[in-house]
Amino acid sequence: MPPPLTPPSEPVRVRVPAKINLALMVGRVGEDGYHPLATLFQAVSLHDDVVAAPAPAGEFSVTMSGEAEGVGDGPDNLAVRAARLLAEDHGVADQVGAALSVRKSIPVAGGMAGGSADAAGALLACSVLWDLDVEPDGLGALGARLGADVPFALLGGTALGTGRGDVLAPVLTSGCFHWVLALSDEGLSTPAVFRRFDELGLGREPEELDVADELMNALRTGDAPALARAVHNDLAPAALDLRPDLEATLRRGEELGALTGIVSGSGPTVAFLCVDESAAIDLSTQLARLPRVRAVRRARGPAQGARLIS
Ligand code: C5P
């Protein structure tokens, strides 16, 4: 029986980054329904904020705000599931509660791990609110049960992900990369993109699940043009098959001066790498005029993983 917890006092605020996959190499689907991956994640400055406030024992709720269209606020909400899972894992589900609020800027169903970010934020915020003793990798291991990208949302920076994308190794980078994100007027379902990937027969052999040395070198030296030549996304053909209009967005962004454009994860967000901040500002103004682009955001990478803010 764990000792009774001290009642929490103040709300705890956490900021969690979105991610871009600089490389996404995907194998054939496994028996668990997941695809083995080798991916290079970069956290970017676009973020969600998660606040955990005290609530009566056994009560776990969430209020969504910001760009949260289509995200429910019931027990299936990933932040609520994360809070409950953390409480259960520590054997305190009948002693603690949390009133969560999530302010979303990461696009929903956008291929930038917005749902995983909210789960990661709730895990960190509740662990502090409830003053739990958490092992260094404990939150990540728990988070992986909620979504493959949760461990990276906690870690942040730039990291190589293997397994389902949940086994992480930090990667050395220098400098700062400037991204322009074209958000779509409609989301794409990640499972649907993986299904189309299977239908197209695109899965790699296990020995082909590898990230190119050129990519690692470009990150280490902070060389944006070299990075642009090395980025790669195996899911892009599947995402483009489901959303052919993204092809025009990619092409236009490159014509307008981006070093390169990539589909972010399973899409439909398109991420453009720019040579510097002023190129990013120019590009973002122009991209906003394209059809089917709901909004344009500038972001820098790498960004910190989930962290407490005042
Ligand atoms: O883990 P998460 O809930 O983010 O994954 C959403 C869906 O994406 C999974 O249910 C699965 O269909 C697909 N997926 C996959 N292989 C991965 C990660 C996700 O097939 N490595």
UniProtKB/TrEMBL annotation:
GHMP kinase C-terminal domain boundaries: 217-288
EC number: 2.7.1.148
Database matches in Pfam families: GHMP_kinases_C, GHMP_kinases_N
Gene: ispE
Entries under NCBIfam families matching the protein: ispE, PRK03188.1
Recorded GO MF terms: 4-(cytidine 5'-diphospho)-2-C-methyl-D-erythritol kinase activity; ATP binding
Active site: 19, 149
The reaction(s) this protein catalyses: 4-CDP-2-C-methyl-D-erythritol + ATP = 4-CDP-2-C-methyl-D-erythritol 2-phosphate + ADP + H(+)
Residues the entry annotates as binding ATP: 107-117
Family: Belongs to the GHMP kinase family. IspE subfamily.
Tagged with keyword Transferase: yes
Name of protein: 4-diphosphocytidyl-2-C-methyl-D-erythritol kinase
Keywords assigned: ATP-binding, Isoprene biosynthesis, Kinase, Nucleotide-binding, Transferase
Domain GHMP kinase N-terminal, first and last residues per copy: 77-157
